Automatic annotation (TrEMBL):
The protein, known as: Xylanase deacetylase
InterPro entries: Glyco_hydro/deAcase_b/a-brl, NODB_dom, Polysacch_Deacetylase
Record's subcellular location: Secreted
Biological source species: Paenibacillus terrae
PROSITE patterns in the record: NODB
Keywords: Carbohydrate metabolism, Glycosidase, Hydrolase, Polysaccharide degradation, Signal, Xylan degradation
Keyword Signal: yes
Entry GO CC: extracellular region
Length: 332
């Protein structure tokens, strides 16, 4: 009897030890670390351990959720990720393979907005694919894969950076490239014209928040903005972006993804005044009809494991942190 108890005790201790290793290794698997430059390379050992937690057998006929939509959020998807926030193209392809094998159905932005605003029907296990910032690699690397898999997608553009040779940073798209993709079925919507940044929230310039979240210090005025000046700034910027999108693409609806997920009640009121009826945050969750300020799940980052993402989607994208995620649902 003592021998049996001893064996069981050793077995339990071994399992706990493996679980401890798994948690330690998996902490950096999914999202990029919070402090730039401190990320660790995902290990093969962590991959193997993760794959023991759930079945990898595809379930193409299973219904995970109905009358709801998971919105996935990506930033740069490229063959050679330049930073921890970017997703390797090969991992993106694996994600698509996993979604397809497990019975997820990709929908268009039109289908999504009709679902949110008018309770239109969507397929079971519906997924909307969204990309932020309008990187040039979306045209050179991501778009060919989307086309191959016949995946409808939306890219949210910072319109002041488009066809702008003076833009500082990672190269962005041109209107010519955007029009080519749009003709092939890719949608493009508002990620502001020139408000994709943080601003100082005090005269001492020691605190910051996203520019769409309230009055900020104006270097031009030498003081803090008034509430009215803030509202006018946001109104003018979002209106400018949508006018550009209409000029080049003739969009028949207005949709906005808030930079950094930053918004306020006043910002939402401005959006509605401009006819922007559907907006997106960076909060995790799943969307039901009437959820006009939608949830998005961060599916990018160099530490992504496609099987972990799809398992999370099978669970209905609960608002709790993704399995083995480190840090918040970060995005720009």
């Amino acid at each position: 009897m003592k021998h049996v108890i001893f064996k069981r005790t050793m077995l339990i201790m071994s399992m706990l030890a493996i679980l401890g290793i798994l948690v330690y290794e998996a902490r950096t698997i999914y999202h990029p670390p919070l402090v730039k430059g401190t990320h660790r390379t995902r290990t093969a050992n962590a991959d193997r351990l993760v794959r023991h937690l759930f079945s990898l057998t595809p379930t193409p006929d299973k219904v995970y959720y109905q009358n709801k939509v998971i919105v996935l959020m990506y930033h740069e998807v490229t063959k050679t990720p330049p930073d921890p926030g970017a997703l390797k193209l090969s991992n993106f392809t694996k994600q698509l393979d996993e979604m397809k094998a497990n019975g997820f159905h990709w929908i268009t932005m039109k289908e999504y907005t009709d679902f949110i605003l008018h309770k239109a029907k969507v397929p079971d296990n519906a997924v909307l694919m969204t990309f932020d910032d309008g990187y040039e690699s979306f045209y050179t690397d991501t778009f060919p894969v989307l086309k191959k898999y016949r995946v409808p997608a939306t890219n949210f553009l910072i319109t002041s950076t488009i066809s702008n040779p003076k833009h500082i940073g990672i190269k962005k798209l041109t209107w010519e490239q955007i029009q080519h993709m749009h003709a092939e079925g890719v949608d493009f919507y508002n990620h502001t014209n020139d408000q994709h940044a943080y601003g100082y929230t005090n005269v001492a310039r020691t605190k910051e928040k996203p520019l769409l979240m309230g009055p900020v210090y104006s270097k031009k005025l030498g003081r803090m903005e008034t509430e009215d000046e803030f509202k006018q700034r946001v109104y003018n910027d979002l209106d400018t972006a949508d006018k550009k999108l209409f000029k080049y693409l003739h969009n028949d609806r207005n949709v906005l993804a808030f930079p950094y997920g930053g918004y306020t009640k006043e910002t939402l009121e401005i959006c509605r005044a401009l006819g922007i009826d559907v907006t997106f945050t960076v909060k995790r969750g799943i969307n039901s009809p009437g959820q006009t300020n939608g949830y998005r799940v961060n599916a990018g980052g160099i530490h992504n494991i496609p099987e972990v993402l799809v398992q999370y989607m099978k669970e209905g994208a609960p608002e709790r942190p993704l399995p083995f995620a480190q840090g918040p649902n970060k995005a720009s």
